[in-house]
TrEMBL record:
Entry superkingdom: Bacteria
Protein name: NfeD-like C-terminal domain-containing protein
Keywords: Membrane, Transmembrane, Transmembrane helix
Transmembrane segments: 6-25, 37-60, 66-87
Keyword Membrane appears in the UniProt entry: yes
Organism: Streptomyces liangshanensis
Lineage of origin: Bacteria, Bacillati, Actinomycetota, Actinomycetes, Kitasatosporales
């Protein structure tokens, strides 16, 4: 019983280590496996197997009179199921897609508001929406633009600066 509980606790400890040493086991093989197991030998998968082997074996041994062989067999089956589920879950997480990262070119043609007046030969500041979030950019214009004026983005000069023109209504 103590051995099974030790395996269960050891699996939990291995899982915690896998969170700290993300990808260490895959890197330890130095690419020898070259994706052969496709994450099947990752630390979370091994930790899931060892934990379920230990805890399930301890439960079978403690609650039945079937003996050590049955406890090992039940623990192995439960460990294999936990390992496969962990492997499939991690694969699903790794393959999940995210939305595209907003870029400066996404600002072209958008409108904003001047928050720091833009002089004719210098920079002011405008408040624009990038990815749904308000972001303040340095702004340059061919003509002076006063505080609170609505502007259109004509070009992105850098990741933090844009060229704007006032909106004529």
């Amino acid at each position: 019983m103590t051995l099974f509980l030790g395996l269960g606790v050891g699996g939990i400890a291995l899982l915690i280590l896998s969170l700290i040493l993300d990808g260490a086991l895959e890197g330890a093989f130095g690419g020898v496996l070259n994706g052969f197991f496709d994450g099947l030998l990752s630390l979370p998968v091994i930790a899931g197997f060892v934990s379920m082997l230990g805890f399930c074996g301890a439960i079978v041994l403690g609650t039945t009179d079937l003996g050590v062989v049955a406890a090992v067999a039940a623990g192995t089956v439960a460990g294999a199921v936990a390992a496969v589920l962990t492997w499939r879950f991690s694969r699903a997480l790794m393959r999940s897609e995210t939305t595209a990262t907003p870029r400066g070119d996404d600002l072209l043609g958008t409108s904003g508001t001047v928050v720091t007046p833009i002089p004719a030969s210098g920079y002011g500041e405008v408040l624009l929406r990038l990815g749904g979030q308000p972001v303040k950019f340095a702004a340059k214009s061919h003509e002076p633009v006063g505080y609170g004026a609505e502007v259109w983005v004509e070009a992105t000069l850098s990741s933090t600066a844009v060229s704007v023109r006032p909106v004529q209504r």
